[in-house]
């Protein structure tokens, strides 16, 4: 069975375009579903955050209307409680050694826009993981973390790679809207990534060699399943 590093944002707020602070963190469905599917497949999942800080769940993601139903909201809440010991003592991201892992999984929520996108340790791990052909699987806003990966000459490591991400359409019509400080899809395109998108709020997964990405929270389970399939190859 594989060892999987799940990198989760440690941010609990995002500075908006107007300068206000928007409460954020990780999105419940994304962390809970991907962690559950990977664990139930027999893989070991180690959670890491910048500074080893216990990650904050975005409370909006636990509301029934955001989770999809009262039953789903309850299930996500229960699973997060079930793995509370792991969430309470995550690995310090700076201490993570990519040679110890077979894959890096990166759930979203708006948190990665506040920290992982600019984190040098995130960039180092992704650069080393990609060079070694390790599976890299960000989804929803998780691909913001890819932006931290730059080569020594400043080139974006994932330029020219096909991937998907929470779309501008979804951000404007169900995310943080016009007050969003920057749009992950736009910035990734500008950096040279080849963005592919599916219908809004529908599971959509893109694989480009070792890079597996998902568009939105609805893609969480399918990304985890794609990681499992890739690990079995």
TrEMBL record:
InterPro entries in alphabetical order: Class_I_gatase-like, DJ-1/PfpI, Prot/Nucl_acid_deglycase
Domain of life: Bacteria
Keywords assigned: Glutamine amidotransferase, Lyase, Stress response, Transferase
Pfam families: DJ-1_PfpI (PF01965)
GO molecular function: glyoxalase III activity; transferase activity
One of the protein's GO biological processes: methylglyoxal catabolic process to D-lactate via S-lactoyl-glutathione
GO terms for cellular component: cytoplasm
Gene3D superfamilies the record matches: 3.40.50.880
Claim: Transmembrane helix is one of the keywords in the record: no
Every DJ-1/PfpI domain range: 30-229
Family membership: Belongs to the peptidase C56 family. HSP31-like subfamily.
Stated name of the protein: Type 1 glutamine amidotransferase domain-containing protein
């Amino acid at each position: 069975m594989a060892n999987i590093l799940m990198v989760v944002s440690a941010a609990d707020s995002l500075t908006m375009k107007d300068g206000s602070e928007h409460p954020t963190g990780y999105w419940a469905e994304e962390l809970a579903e991907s962690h559950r599917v990977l664990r139930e497949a027999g893989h070991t999942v180690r959670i890491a955050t910048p500074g080893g800080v216990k990650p904050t769940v975005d409370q909006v993601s636990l509301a029934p209307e955001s989770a999809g139903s009262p039953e789903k909201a309850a299930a996500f809440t229960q699973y997060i409680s079930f793995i509370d010991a792991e969430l309470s003592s995550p690995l310090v991201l700076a201490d993570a050694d990519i040679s110890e892992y077979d894959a890096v999984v990166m759930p979203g929520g708006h948190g990665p826009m506040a920290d992982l996108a600019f984190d040098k340790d995130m960039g180092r791990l992704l650069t080393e993981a990609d060079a070694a052909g390790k599976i890299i699987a960000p989804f929803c806003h998780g691909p913001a973390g890819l932006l931290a990966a730059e080569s020594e000459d400043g080139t974006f490591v994932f330029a020219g790679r096909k991937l998907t991400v929470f779309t501008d359409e979804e951000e404007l019509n169900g995310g943080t809207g016009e007050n969003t400080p920057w749009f992950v899809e736009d910035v990734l395109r500008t950096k040279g990534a080849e963005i592919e998108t599916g219908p809004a709020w529908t599971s959509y997964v893109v694989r480009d060699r070792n890079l597996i990405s998902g568009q939105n929270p609805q893609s969480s389970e399918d990304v985890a399943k794609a990681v499992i399939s890739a690990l079995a190859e």
